[in-house]
Structure formats: C-alpha cells, structure tokens
Amino acid sequence: MMSNPNFGVWRPMAESIEFNALESNSNAVMAVADTVRTTLGPKGLDKLLIDQAMNRHVSNDGVTILLSVRAIHPVARMIVEIAERQEQLVGDGTTTAVVMAAEMIKEGKKLVKELGVHPTKVVEGIDSGVRHACELLEAESRTISIKDVALEQVVNTSLSSKLDGRQLSSLVITALRIVGENAKFDGSFDFDKSIMVIRKTNMEDRIVSGLVLERKRVDPAMPTKINEARIMIARLDLKPVKESWLKDNSKYQEILSMENDRIEKSKRLVDAMIATGANTFLLASTEIDQVVEDLLVSHNVFAVRISIEEMDYMSRYTGAKIVRMIDDLSKPDIVGKADRVFEEEENGVVCIEGGSGKNMVTLVVSGSTKETSLERWRAAIDGVNAAEAALNKGVVAGGGAAELHVIEGVKDMRLKGLEQVGLEVVASALESIMRQILSNAGYNGLEKVMAAKASPRGFGIDIDSGEAVDMWNKGILDPLLVKTMALKAAGEIAKSVLRIDRNLAAENLDPQAVSDTKR
Fold first, then answer.
1. Residue 456 and residue 61: Cα distance in Å, rounded?
2. Which H or E run includes 79?
3. Strand runs (DSSP E) across 53-190, as ranges?
4. What is the reported pLDDT for 1?
5. Burial letters for 426-450: b for 16+ Cβ neighbours within 10 Å, e otherwise?
6. CATH of domain 230-353
7. What does the DSSP 8-state code read for residue 238?
8. Is the CB of residue 410 less than 8 Å from the CB of residue 430?
9. How far is CA 186 from the centre of its chain?
10. Helix (H, G, I), strand (E, B), or coil: what is residue 323?
11. DSSP 8-state assignment for residue 499
12. CA 205 to chain centre
C-alpha cells in the first residue's frame, strides 16, 4: 500500500496508476476542448493562429483551429483526428463533437474515480445512450426541399457565427437554388459535384453560371476567347521525349536523332488532338513540351492547364470524356461543348460558360486580405455542406434545443445494473451544447438551460433577448446529420478514453515491423 496525495486516501498502487492514466488523458481532452469551446454559437469568439514563421490567421472554425494547433499528447491527437473525420464526412459539427466528448469524459471520470464504477459499465451505458439519443433526434426531425424557406434558415444558422455570415448566406442560397434538383446524384444531393467555391482577393463576391478556374492560358499568344467551344480534357503525356534523356546522351548524332524524334512525335500528337475537332484544350498534364505548346499556338486554339481534381468538374459540365491514352483520341464523343471559354486577364481566371453537361455554378468569394478571403471561403463551404446535410437527412431545432429536449427520453431508458449511470453521462453531454452557446453569448448558461428545459419541445433561448422561444418559428435550424454524427463521434472518443487504464511506451506500432520481428 502507498499514499497518493492526489487522492487523499490509501489506494493500491495499480489503482493509482489507473487513475493517473485517466487523469492525464482526461486533461488532454479538456485542453483541446477549451481551445475551441468558446467559438461555439453565433456570438462565439475567434482565435488568432500564429505559426513559427509569424504567419497569422484569425478563425473561429473548429476544425481549422484544431488542425493548426500542435497536439503532442496522443489522446489530444486522437481528438483532432476524430474532428477531422467529422469534417470530411459531414463538413460541420467538429466543435460540437469535441465539446460533447469533453463533457462525457468529465462526467465519466467522476463515476470511475469518485463512485468506483467500472469503466466498462460506463462505456456500455454511453453506447446505449448515444444510440437512443440519435433515434430520438431522428424522430424529432423534419424533411425539407430545395425550395423551402427552411433551407435558407439552415444556411443562415450555419453562417451566423462566420465572418460576413449574412452576405455569404445570400450568395450560398442563390447558388443552391440555381443548381437545384440537378445537384442530385444517385438519389442524394451532392453539391460538391455542382458548386465550385474559389477565393480571389482581387474580385468581388459573385456567382458565375458555369466554371471559373484560377488559371491562365498556356501561352499569351493564344486567343483570349473562344465562342462555340469544342472542349477536350486531356491527361496525356505531352512531353514525348524527356530533356533528361538528351542531357544523358553525349553523342551528337544520337542527340540530333532524339530531337528530331521529339519534334515528329509532338507533331503527330497535336495533329491527332486537332483532328478531333476540338478548339479548346484543358490539359491535366504534369509537363507540356515546348514543341507541343508552340504547335497548339500555331493552330490558334485555346489551352489551359488544370489540376487532376478539376478534371471531373470539367467533364460533368462540358460533357467531355477524359482522354488518358493516345488511342482514346480516335474514340467518338470525347469532345464536350460550351457556349464560350475566355480568360479574364485582369483577374487571372478562365471562365467556361454554357456547358452542354450538368448545370454547375462557381461561387467566387473575395476578401480584403488573404486571411479574410480564406475564412470567408471556408464559411461558404460550410454553408453548402450544411444545406446538403439538411436536404439529405432533414433538420432539427437549432441552438442546442433538439439535444436538450431528448434528454428525458434518454434518461427514461432502462438498462441493467450500473450501465444506467452511463445515461447520465450522455444526458450531460446533450445539455452541454446549449449551455456553451449561451455562456459564449454572455449569459449564465446553467440558468438559461433550466428555463429552456421548462419550455415546450423545440424551444430554446434567443441569444439576443435571453427569452425562451420556439426555434422552429424563429428559423434556427440545424441539419440532423450534423447532430447525430457529432454525437456518435463524441461517444467514440469518450468510450476510447474511459477504457484506457494505462499509457505505455511502445517500441514500434508499425504492423509491418511487428510482423517482420515475429518471422
């Protein structure tokens, strides 16, 4: 037996080690949560991010902050990874997930340390509580359509805490309505396939019916505009003879032969491309031979380099099929169409309008500085993601009201034995969202939460007046998918942390290295 001043009682050594691990891991989660919790809600605060080179950026975007902060503790890094996955899957709700996870771990730690409940029982209760809470939230949700005013309310709610949120909200909603039903793929809305969002500090906010590329023509001698564009998207090797081959060869005749071969191959390649009838070339090639470039200029065509990521957008919008092999040039229907392709030289962008494929738009987001344009760009994407989630899975009352009013339903569950206490952990996490939003708005969060609890379902607190209001009538709506995914992510984090009873130094966690050692 040994004395541990941290607990004030006599405990076995093994038990002390267990609680030290829990305390360390819990503190790591709290540190991460405290970094972002004050950003939650319309009146959340911003963070100033500064790197070693003294570059700075102001943001209240949860995932941006988490990914920017150097997390050393392994559990803290796990929180960041979960938040990043939440962003990838839903596009929003990272801060909500982290705040709820911190609350679950704080309450779960109390049960384990102070009441002596075994972590497995707490975890089983959390698992059941999270699953039931998601079911209750789904029962509370309502479906919306692309034309409903509820869609505008979802976007407004999502962008309420963002820089220039109201102005961006109007742009996002307009873009959503333009693409409308055309944004459906395989039965679900996928605006990533129909709305491009770019940022340009030297341009005004605007919506372009078509695609805008932050590119310039391959050569200034090419025409700046092509009407009735016939478009080829090529991912070909446009450097048939590498310069390194010429440098490695010291014999003049062989160099001359290779140079002639280079010119001949380039001419055959360009002739085959022109023979398709294309007058506009979107080139996703890592290198373009100077001979190829000069030949394209001589044919008076328009050519611009694009990224591999942009190819799919171009293909969907123009109807062009991506050419990957030279043999593909002889296939039918590889050329797409657009009414016009042109370069805005003063803005450094290329515009494609009137494509014959899917209806697509580009949302151009400006900013007085690179930092503000980046933050506004992220905000616009968040608004699009929120709308997509809402249209696909429905909406619930926002401001933490939906979570607050399913607490009683979670508590009413009947689990066997000590698993029941795990439900209290989930209930506390569900309450934490509204409490944090109100605290960030300058209210006594606990007091206002009590007032909201005494109100009918769907009621929350108006952060301007401090009064209980019907969030549905007020137009404060959140996507159901954001809520359920955040709750599930929080549950995963909490269960993982509470089940850890030792932090051990390992030699090598690379599965391949371990496998090689066993041989």
1. 31
2. helix 74-89
3. 56-59, 184-185, 188-189
4. 35
5. bbbbbbbbbbbbbbbbebebeebbe
6. 3.50.7.10
7. B
8. yes
9. 21
10. strand
11. T
12. 21
For residue 12, the model assigns a pLDDT of 42
Cβ neighbours of residue 442 closer than 8 Å, sequence gap 6 or more: 43
C-alpha distance from residue 27 to each of 24, 109, 240, 399 (Å): 5, 11, 58, 27
DSSP 342: E
Non-local (6+) Cβ contacts of 492 within 8 A are 82
Mean pLDDT by 10 residues, the chain (519 residues): 38 50 88 90 87 80 82 82 80 88 93 89 94 96 94 93 84 92 84 91 90 94 96 86 53 61 86 95 88 93 93 93 91 94 93 93 89 88 93 94 95 86 93 94 91 93 93 95 93 91 72 52
pLDDT at position 162: 82
Tokens of 333: 């229907």
Please enumerate in sequence order all residues whose Cβ is within 8 A of that of 175, keeping only pairs 6 or more positions apart, or say none: 195, 207, 361, 363, 384
Tokens (6 digits) for 178: 């333009």
Which pLDDT belongs to residue 249? 53
Identity of the amino acid at 317: Y
Residue 182 is given by DSSP the state G
- 432 vs 501: CA distance, rounded Å: 26
What are the distances in angstroms from CA 2 to CA 9, 14, 20, 22, 435? 9, 10, 14, 19, 41
CA 125 – CA 418 distance, rounded (Å): 8
Q: How far is CA 137 from CA 100, 108, 458, in A?
A: 16, 23, 11
Write the DSSP string, 398-431. TTTHHHHTTHHHHHT---SGGGGHHHHHHHHHHH
The reply to whether CATH 1.10.560.10 applies to domain 7-142+394-498 is: yes
> So what's the pLDDT on residue 109?
92
- Residues 451 and 470: their CA atoms lie apart, in Å, by 13
Give the residue ranges of DSSP H helices in 115-148.
119-140
How far apart, in whole angstroms, are the C-alpha atoms of residue 29 and residue 80? 10
Contact 169, 155 (CB under 8 A): yes
Question: What per-residue confidence (pLDDT) applies to 375?
Answer: 87
- Yes or no: say if 295 and 213 are a contact pair by the CB < 8 Å rule: no
